[in-house]
């Protein structure tokens, strides 16, 4: 063929295609469906700008019409109605249908605006979505609107999304069919939110962590905080720092709604609330240091009382005020031992009460049992310093023997548990006892402390 005829011939073909009458376009459309010719169908129709549509989607549409004869018939009826509107010069109604004629009588495929519904996710670090192979859309900030994925022609599509929440990555996917002949906005809903739970702490100012990642949520607020997404296996924990150190909550492995029964504190709470109040003093080295200080202090205190010798408390890790708290006890004991105390000294008390004071001590400390699981931070009323409060059990063979009684009258000779509550502070990087509240005349046969976070220290 002579080269000078090539350009005119191509122009002639394009003109014929572009100027195809509605009657001819409908005829060719029917032919492509009947012959199952996706290539011919793809070449027949027009596509709006920025719309993704390939021969693969043309085949999807063809198969849809082949398998759904009622939809195919409805589509033909719409095209014929539009063709008649052109002939009769009536107003063109092309707002329905998977295919339509524009006002220039060109046959177009419908354009669908596809988005990912904002109901699919919560606040994310990044959100990556793909509909077309090798093309991804990445969002790094959540808005309150759907994420627009693009403009697509009719067909079958596969949507994949990955939401990165730093501490967990959630994925979901869905097959999407775009063949609606009236609604051309498709909002896809995927499950990228996981589960949610209310997490709270009764201690203010805590830091909240999921799998070691700090989460900027205030779980100390009056209503706690709704945490989402959560999936089974995530580790939840809270921590709070004070001048003396840190308290941590138990590590809670999230196991789904209704599975955290040990964290319920009132009947008003829903089954999906988790108490992450920090109680445990978790620093291993400091726990051993504190345990030794408490054991040493109480070992010397009980021995000093049994021997009526307050000098045993000269070199203990305690404030002068804490030591002075036992001055009256030693003074009374000394007067009893020396015989300078008498029942008349207690005549202002109800009859018989003098035996609480007129007596002596014997025995000493065997071991201390310290509960670091339920530690508390309190404030010194005078200095406003942070203090560590610990509950302790002292296993002893220490007993108070009132005047007029003997060792043979002692109950629980095998062992006696005293239950002091102790306040400590950290001063110059050293732990010291600031106060100890104890009933030295207790007679308990069993320890009142249980749990996995107890530290037992033998007395020297």
Summarize the structure.
The protein is of the alpha+beta class.
Radius of gyration: 41 Å
Summed up, the domain count is 4
Structural class: alpha+beta
Shape estimate: rod-shaped
The first-to-last residue Cα distance is 113 Å
What does this structure look like?
The chain is of the alpha+beta class. It has four domains: about 5-110, no CATH class; about 110-190, Immunoglobulin-like (Sandwich), CATH 2.60.40; about 195-275, no CATH class; about 285-460, Roll (Nuclear Transport Factor 2, Chain: A). Helices cover about 25% and strands about 30% of the residues. It contains eight helices and 26 strands. Strands 20, 21, 23, 24, 25 and 26 form a six-stranded antiparallel β-sheet that branches. Strands 12, 13, 15, 16 and 17 form a five-stranded antiparallel β-sheet that branches. A four-stranded mixed β-sheet has the order 1-7-4-10, with no helix packed on it. Strand 20 and strand 21 form a beta hairpin. Helix 3 (about 40-45) crosses helix 4 (about 55-65). The longest helix has 23 residues, at about 285-305. The chain is rod-shaped. The model is unreliable at about 1-15 and about 260-270 (pLDDT under 50).
